[in-house]
Structure prediction request, 134 residues.
Amino acid sequence: MNEQDKPTEAPAPVETPAPAETAAPADAAPASELTMEERVVEVVKTIFDPEIPVNIYELGLIYEVTWDAERKKVDVSMTLTSPSCPVAGTLPGEVEVKIKEIDGIDDVTVELVWDPPWTMEKLSEAAKLQMGLT
Prediction:
């Protein structure tokens, strides 16, 4: 039997791998598993200081976030980089509006405080990197 007369074998099927699923980073939790305080922080991280390209959380402007589940109320204590900050009249209101958009929150109080005063030490490492300070 010559080569042309030999029965041909069907090629082995090629298995196509299933598309990889896009996985969240190992340290990221689904929104449903976050505490309300963590959900608030995630929203606050979307608000940027108009003069500095860093979000207000990483700038260290948010001092405290507390959640009262019974009253469905969030209290935020925040500051600004200085009392003469040009957004002093609008930024706390923006924070309040964005937090109120979170499902499950009925009331938000944002208190602007000046003590302790904001200093560069309040910047997160991420903010320092972003601003070229490290």
User: Anything to note?
Assistant: The CA atoms of residues 42 and 117 lie 24 Å apart. The longest helix spans residues 91-100. The mean pLDDT is 82.
